[in-house]
Amino acid sequence: MRELILHCSEQQAESLSDALLELGVLSVSVEDADEHTDQEKPLFGEPGLEPEVLAWQRNRVVALLPEDVEPEDMVAQLQEHVDISVPANAWSVRDVPDSDWVRITQAQFGPIRVGEKVLIVPSWHRDDPDLVMPDQGDESGVRIELDPGLAFGTGSHPTTHLCLHWLSDANLVDQRVLDYGCGSGILAIAAKKLGASSVDAVDIDEQAVSSTIYNAEVNQVTVNASLPDALEDGQYDVVVANILSGPLKVMASMLCGRVRPGGYLALSGILDWQAEDLIKTYGQWIPMEVWQEREGWVCLAGRRPA
After folding, report:
1. CA 55: distance to chain centroid?
2. Does the pLDDT at position 167 exceed 60?
3. For residues 133 and 9, what is the distance between their CA atoms, to the nearest angstrom?
4. Angle 276-279-304 (CA atoms, 0-180°, nearest 5)?
5. pTM as predicted
6. Alpha-carbon distance 176 to 39, whole Å?
7. How far apart are CA 240 and CA 254, in angstroms?
8. What is the radius of gyration, based on Cα positions, of the chain?
9. Whole-number pLDDT of residue 137
10. Is the pLDDT score of 42 beyond 60?
11. Architecture of the domain whose range is 156-303
């Protein structure tokens, strides 16, 4: 396979990327043409959100071409499509070695152990005879089968790992649990396997709701997954939300209101420097503190006064 590499300005990067996708390239990425030099400049944005600046001053737009498309033809179509001149010295082609991309992708996601009770197992490892539960056979341990890529939440990201660890340390037996911002459903599934009597899972993304339902079925547990508007009124023994600091701040009153008196709230998706602001915001209803930190991310936890 081959990649078409276009050098362009900040103003052209987005339009060229959109046009290439419309013309049928397999993928597009934008890179800093000055990376690894003194002129390299980072783009800042809260994880999960787009930065205010979407490109660098000097960019490489890299497009993966279908096998039957000639680079010269793609450049010609591109210039007609966006009415931007692409001189001969502004583009180049490089070969992409043939690889077993499925095997390479799978190799990046092995089994993940969380605390002493939880083991996340990608489907291609389900029959691995060498896998042993973290608790060495104790019936309190849980094994969750999940494929990467369905939605955010494979257990590999620090924020998901933190929430899983918190849930595994909590006593969820016969507890009613709400997972707000469920993504792949991994936290909801873990809660159910750790003994929760019922688990509701909510996300604003329909695909995330579908992923949660699918993954719950694969793991043979019952999780009630829905969009926010379909969530019935009521309070929970445990509420967990792994989102981002901005949305968490906006939803503080609502999330706290979902926790019964004496119940527990755990929050993640929070960078360590954002923790103090979130603690202050949630402190109006529930006293929160940093439960644990991992790779610059924190999990906040607290108990609603009875």
Report:
1. 22
2. yes
3. 52
4. 165
5. 0.66
6. 53
7. 13
8. 23
9. 42
10. no
11. 3-Layer(aba) Sandwich (3.40)
Looking at CATH, the fold of the domain delimited by 2-98 is given as Alpha-Beta Plaits (3.30.70)
Structure tokens at 242: 């792994």
**Residue 265, beta-bridge partner list:** 239, 302
Q: How far apart are CA 187 and CA 178, in angstroms?
A: 10
User: 13 pLDDT band (50/70/90 cuts)?
Assistant: confident
**Number of CB atoms found within 10 A of residue 220's CB:** 10
Rounded alpha-carbon distances, angstroms, from residue 284 to 240, 245, 249, 287: 18, 16, 12, 8
Q: Which pLDDT band holds residue 32 (cuts at 50, 70, 90)? A: confident
Q: What is the DSSP letter of 24?
A: T
Which residues are bridge partners to 267 per DSSP?
241, 300
**Could you give the residue ranges of the DSSP H alpha helices within 54-205?**
71-82, 101-107, 158-169, 186-193
In which band, very low, low, confident or very high, does the pLDDT at 104 lie, cut at 50, 70 and 90? low
Domain ranges of the chain: 2-98, 156-303
**Which residues have CB under 8 Å from 304's CB, separation 6+?**
256, 259, 260, 261, 262, 263, 264, 265, 285, 286
Q: How many residues does the chain have?
A: 306
Torsion angle of the four alpha carbons 90, 95, 96, 98, in this order, in degrees rounded to the nearest 10:
160
